[in-house]
Write a structure and sequence with these properties.
Blueprint lengths: L1 E5 L4 H8 L3 E2 L2 E4 L2 E4 L1 E2 L9 E11 L3 H10 L7 E8 L8 H14 L3 E2 L6 E11 L13 E13 L21 H10 L7 E4 L6 H8 L3 E6 L2 H14 L11 E5 L14 E5 L13 H15 L2 E6 L4 H6 L2 E12 L2 E10 L12
Length: 356
């Protein structure tokens, strides 16, 4: 079993993303979840800080944590350090007192302490308050919780996102934050050996994060300047596409409602629909554009993530998708993003067409 320390302020969303790299994810307390097992993908997550091999779990106070550590089997040798965190300052606890008391237990059990370069790090996460509430996430029941989890640090997220949009060679206002883009492509299934499509790529924020986690990125946009700009950003941060070095990405001008791809051509789709305005493809109204893009996404992939300024669940279902999860994520006072995690309805799988 593992303890996950979640990042950000939206635990249900973070837990949903974590489930792409771990099994049996369930919320325990604000900022903390449990998992049955974890994979290499933990390092690619945007909203999980670290995974810890479970040692014990108690209430969010120091004395029970000390007692639990004294009773726990410890099958390690070498030097240790204890790092305590009061997750989001939700617990009434002194992390300094916790580190001192837990460290004393480890010394009494034969470990040496090395605060600079330890062989093992024991993390104590304290959290209290109400769990998030969401019908698609285990443990997200809104109930009150008071928890301390003790665990050996097993994997930490690299958080190796692309630079902020304003620092990239090609930038347009309204570009998505890198951490959000990373989370969305993870939810769409981006990973080494997989191919992710963004049919409305804009400045390339989603393909960038897909490429950085090792996926092959395919992108298109109706505007030629966006195609050129996305290529420039991908060359800069993902590499390839110049000096004879073959890219792991492909960007072309195209219509999201009429993709030049065979059925089941990609493993996942993620796209950020236009916000509160008409599409740049002159012949499409916004509703027709999104509905057409959803239908094409269902033709070419079994999984998709749609990000928009409104709830498109109705058109998604009409296009053959099941809504696995839906989230509202506040960006600022005038913008709340609606995020749909979509899975193709059973029985609607396509037959791949050979060729190009």
């Amino acid at each position: 079993m593992y303890w996950l320390e979640l990042a950000g302020e939206t635990d249900a969303f973070a837990a949903c993303e974590a489930a792409t790299a771990a099994t049996g994810v369930e919320l325990l307390a604000p900022g903390i979840a449990t998992a049955g097992s974890v994979g290499e993908g933990i390092g690619r997550l945007a909203y999980t800080r670290a995974a810890h091999e479970a040692v014990a779990r108690t209430d969010a106070t120091v004395a029970p944590a000390v007692a639990a550590l004294e009773a726990a089997p410890l099958d390690r040798e070498g030097s240790v350090a204890v790092r305590a965190r009061n997750v989001r300052n939700t617990a009434d606890v002194s992390t300094t007192d916790a580190e001192r008391a837990l460290g004393s237990v480890l010394v009494d059990r034969g470990f040496s302490v090395d605060l600079d370069d330890p062989d093992h790090v024991l993390r104590a996460l304290f959290a209290a308050g109400e769990r998030a509430e969401h019908d698609a996430v285990a443990g997200a029941d809104g109930e009150s919780a008071s928890t301390c989890v003790l665990g050996w640090v097993a994997r930490e997220a690299a958080r190796d996102f692309a630079p902020d949009p304003t620092d990239r060679p090609f930038f347009q206002p309204g570009s998505m934050a890198p951490a959000d883009a990373r989370a969305y492509v993870n939810l769409a299934g981006a990973a080494p050996g997989r191919t992710l499509l963004d049919p409305m790529c804009g400045t390339g924020g989603l393909p960038l994060e897909a490429g950085l986690v090792g996926a092959d990125a395919v992108a298109c946009d109706a505007q030629e300047k966006m195609v050129r700009g996305t290529r420039e950003n991908l060359r800069t941060y993902v590499g390839g596409g110049h000096d004879g070095d073959p890219p792991t990405w492909h960007v072309a001008r195209g219509d999201a409602t009429d993709l030049p791809l065979v059925d089941d051509a990609v493993d996942g789709v993620a796209f950020d629909a236009p916000y509160g305005r008409q599409s740049k493809i002159a012949r499409h109204e916004l509703a027709d554009l999104v509905a057409g893009a959803l239908a094409e996404a269902a033709r070419v992939a079994p999984r998709a993530v749609l990000v928009a300024d409104r709830d498109w669940r109705g058109p998604a279902r009409e296009a053959g998708w099941e809504v696995a999860a839906a989230f509202e994520r506040r960006v600022h006072r005038s913008l709340t993003r609606h995020v749909l995690v979509l899975e193709r309805e059973r029985g609607s799988a396509r037959t791949t067409i050979e060729g190009n």
